[in-house]
Amino acid sequence: MNKFLSMLLATALVASSLAAQAPDPAGSVSGRLSSAQKTVEAASIGLLRIKDSAVVKRSVTDKNGDFSMEKIPAGKYLVAVQAAGYAKYYSDAFELSANHQAHHLNITALKPVANELASVSVTSKKPFIEQRLDKTVINVDASPSNAGTTVMDILEKSPGISVDKDGNISLKGKQGVMILIDGRPTYLSGQDLANMLRNMSSSHLDQIELMTNPPAKFDASGNAGVINIKTKKNKAQGFNGSLTTGYGQGVYPKANNSLNLNYRTGKFNLFGNASHYYSQNFNEINLTRIFRNKSSDTISSIFDQRTLSNREYRGYNFKTGFDYFASQKTTLGLVVTGFGNNGTEYMRNNTLIKDNSGVLNTRTQSANDGRNEFKNVGFNFNLRHVFDTTGTELTSDVDYIHYASNNSQLLNSLFYDNAGNKKGPDETMRGLVPSDIDIYSAKVDFSKTLRGDIKFEAGIKSSYVTTDNNAQYSNLQNGQYVIDSGRTNHFLYKENVNAAYVNFGKQFNKKWSGQFGLRTENTVMKGNQLTTGQTFNRHYTQLFPTVYIGYTLNDKNQFSLNYGRRINRPNYQDLNPFFYFLDKYTYQVGNPYLNPQFSHNIELSHIYGGMLTTTINYSYTTDIIQDVLEQIDSTTTTYVKKSNIASRWNLGASMSLGMPLAKWWRTNVYLLYYYNQYKGTVNGGPISIGGNNFMANMNNQFTFKKGWGAELSGFYRGNSLEGVLVIQPMGSMNIGLSKQILNSKGTIKMNLSDVFYTQQFNGYSKYQNVDVTIHQVRDSRVFNVSFSYRFGKGKPVQQQRRRGSATDEQNRVQQGGNGS
Hints:
Elements lengths: L1 H19 L6 E9 L2 E2 L4 E6 L5 E6 L5 E7 L2 E8 L6 E2 L3 E3 L5 E6 L21 E3 L4 E4 L11 H6 L4 E3 L5 E3 L2 E2 L1 E5 L2 E2 L4 H9 L6 E7 L13 E7 L6 E12 L3 E12 L3 E25 L6 E27 L4 E25 L5 E27 L6 E25 L9 E24 L3 E24 L2 E4 L5 E19 L4 E18 L4 E21 L2 E12 L10 E5 L2 E4 L7 E12 L3 E21 L4 E26 L2 E18 L2 E19 L4 E10 L2 E3 L2 E3 L2 E12 L4 E7 L8 E7 L2 E9 L4 E10 L28
Parallel strand pairs: 1-9, 15-18, 34-37
Antiparallel strand pairs: 1-2, 1-5, 3-4, 3-6, 6-7, 6-8, 10-11, 11-17, 12-13, 13-14, 15-16, 17-18, 19-20, 19-47, 20-21, 21-22, 21-46, 22-23, 23-24, 24-25, 25-26, 26-27, 27-28, 27-29, 29-30, 30-31, 31-32, 32-35, 33-34, 35-36, 36-37, 37-38, 38-39, 39-40, 40-43, 41-42, 42-45, 43-44, 44-47, 45-46
């Protein structure tokens, strides 16, 4: 820790030294856009340098028509404006210098390009999906069908994203996505991450950013890239806020309520939000497993299982904090976040065990009741100091995050023969699985514009994680619970990751731009199974380069080529050799010997006319982590374990088209094709399997007069391949309606998700001596209605969102729920 503090101090001293050599400060450009006394939202603003017409900065107007651009070098500029329904506008030239550091424009001269239809009132509105060269942006509020929904609902219909039956999120056919909230990690994964996202109301969300190859400033974790979920943060002076309440009805009810408050005055900005979510769902799984003799390939036994579970969750989350503007150059901040989830699950299982000819031998009925309690609190202290207006800046973040879960499970099994008579004694097992995770993290980032307009960035980060998992299982014998030593396990894990990076970027001329970054991460891991006395120690250092090349052919054609190497470390709980039981014959277990995945990713993108985006991407990943199904022949028991199974090649192409079909109708279409090829070893046997995959997303937004809006959206996913599991086609259609009321301060939204009830999971796998087929149905068709109200007013100002120092660690924590 002393060495780390010395590194932080050294970086600060270097930054101060460099700042002393900085050129004279320049300034910022801001303005307001309006036409016919109406503000224009979602207009594209470009800052052009006079000498070569190069675009220096870009911005988008907010709902009040305001925009702001900062850290602009001294020079002569003009502003270009593009807005739907208006002719392109260019401002008069102006100059930024030491004597004129801030320039404000009040643009009122926009000219409509055509008359409005008599039956339609056209307002400028952000599209639901925006495609950019470096990322895809989802504007959450632009979609009426997001009423009363959760973050997971939005992700499931976002372009290029798919979610499997266990809640694992894939981006462009690749698992291993790093999830951030306001640039800060979630530390969750798999089913547990899905539970959290399904308990988060979408009413707090502003945007979702999808980045397949993030720059070196981000943690190298996440083979498939980064999904950054941005929450709302009011930018106006004075007191402002919003209130949202919603109700949903599927087979079971759902409800959500949220409150967002912000107060900004001269030296302080105070903010806070809180939400509560209630959800009751069902989950039906039909699973057939055929086991074959390894030597003769003949059928040895058949398991037909039907599981019906009812889950009830009550969740809350909050975020509060303040920014203190110590001076025009220095800002101090504190952010406190928290999340809690209390859930119960009642699972009933019926298993038919048949011999090789399909004759019933044994029927098992199981009742599996569980309680899941999960709590988390996090503290972030941040500092930002701007040395000048040419881009010299120092930021620092220190984080502490604590997770605590307390899960219990009671499994009761009854056995019958083929005639329905009791067969043997009943079995009752109890499991208690408390878990604690503590994460300490700190980072410093420095940026400066060097001579020749080269943007230089550098930073360091250190994180330290400890986990304590104590799984206690016992069996009921003669009226008393007796410890099951074969399943009980106390596991301690410690991890320290130290990282540093540098990044250089330059706009060479009005056509060419480039960026190069290099990040290094050193990892030290220690695991200790106190119950068995087994320990392991590992350490490794890796380099992660990133390269970006941009080329602007003309006003309508932009190209981008990028490359990056990334890592996906095992989730903390996947390293813990604990047990979770679905029934007597099926359970899940951790694997302390998992290795990290490494991937090389390359992507070529083209944007035509700001409407059509096409990409071609390729990735190669080693030591893919996948679920592996294994059979214990002596007990006819099956368990699922994460293993490093293979290397994977992924080749894909995508197309995104966003354009207005009429003044009142805007459409977005996204098509994705990719091919996955796996080659490696599973259960000691070779694997070589590949498959084609296809996805399509469609979103149509309709804007009518008097504040009415509507949406029709949906997705389709063809056959896809995840390891040895083939996922069969599925899709969904959603409709939504919205109406602005109370002088546009209030909004009523209604939507029906999965209209035709087609969002059902089907899959199969045939590998070695186990054939598996699965069919899963959940409560996906839901009618939602919500009401939101915005209050307060003031002058908008630019606000900084904090990215905490813990950007990788949170993605690897699983919430205290089951792993089914």
